[in-house]
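Contributing new complexes? Match this layout with NAP.
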Amino acid sequence: MKHDSFFIERAIELARKGFPRATPNPLVGCVLAKNGKAVAEGFHKTFGGHHAEIVALRKAGKEARGATAFINLEPCSYWGKTPPCVSALIKAGIRSVVAAMPDPNPKVRGRGLKSLQKAGISVRVGVLKEKALELNLPFWTQMTKNRPYIVLKTAMTLDGKTTDYQDKSQWITSRQSRKILWKTRSLFDAVLVGIKTVHKDNPELTSHGYGRNPARVVLDPRLTINPNARILNTKAARTIVVTSAKNDKKFEALSRKDVEILTVGATGASFDLKEIMRLLSIKSIQTLLVEGGSVTHGHFVQNSLADAILWFIAPKILGGAAAKSPVEGKGLALNNALAVKNITLLNQNPEQLFSLPLDGGQGLRPYLRPRSSAERGGGQGGGDIILRGSLREDGLKWPLLEI
Ligand SMILES: NC(=O)c1ccc[n+]([C@@H]2O[C@H](COP(=O)([O-])OP(=O)(O)OC[C@H]3O[C@@H](n4cnc5c(N)ncnc54)[C@H](OP(=O)(O)O)[C@@H]3O)[C@@H](O)[C@H]2O)c1
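Output block (do not edit by hand):
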């Protein structure tokens, strides 16, 4: 009991090391301890590889007998790519198990803990549950909602414009911010845009060498994508075009470029976005960065399909009634507005003397502190403000989305 939080904290720390190679499996770490001292540790390193418990049990050998296993997730009770961890823990003579949270996977959901108890192993669950849940928010979202963990990203001016009145938007924010975005992309399994963004900006949607390249998803109901679009001709990453059009000739041309086509139904002009999210989740896409434009964001917001926001705000004013804002579509009534919680403000304005951290959970609580030398040197973001916040009711945020 005394050491529960300490060892679970360590298990969470170990689990993080499995990112991103363990995905779409959950990130799991395990500490085996006896008399308050760790005897072995392990984490799930790669998808298809040994689970954290097995790694720790192998390291511990005979020392595992009589030990307590501290794990950030309930051990699995079924044969997947590897044998069930529960059986291995029982066989090794583990005395008790402390798990941070139950496994949301419908194949497990409490069965692992029950099997352990049946074998006479004492079980405690719920230690540092919120922290453990935060780390595995994408896995939890996929298991309980059949969709990826979705982050809406936009780049806008201080007056909330994502394009100018001429519909030109490229490079609203600074080069430093774009580098942060490229790095951020590498954290995601996929990046999604609407077809008009492809027509207008012709983006590559890669991480530009800042890490792994996410898959690229384009919502293109009428299949108007230009075969010369960069996204179709940079082989750097998997590309998925979602459409409801039936155009065999174009399907063939896209298949020759190794583009995956996802054909889905549409109601009027609008896709069944929930169904698309389900299909992407089946394709092992557990994290999705939605980069807009405004019409696409509008569909996601209208369907309540968003878990977090990442807002890049350039200290500029564009004005203009025709200039777009980040979220279009019908919009929400004020009493239905999406509440952004637990806001982190990354204010990197070299002109400013003080930082203002905002605590979204407990209201606005600004305090002033002198800027660090890194901040005085301009820091990241090149004068842009970067906001990160949770759209979940509990305000939890995926900690790996650290920028
Ligand atoms: N500042 C920024 O962060 C940022 C980011 C991205 C884009 N932009 C700018 O925004 C502009 C483009 O944005 P936009 O709002 O006009 O267009 P968009 O969101 O890029 O694309 C909208 C189109 O995508 C299709 N689409 C998206 N969601 C759909 C759904 N749920 N169901 C069916 N179809 C769906 C539709 O295609 P159809 O038209 O074929 O029906 C729709 O008209 C460009 O100027 C771009 O440069 C700015």
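Reviewers usually confirm one structural detail per submission. For this one: The longest helix spans residues 4-16.
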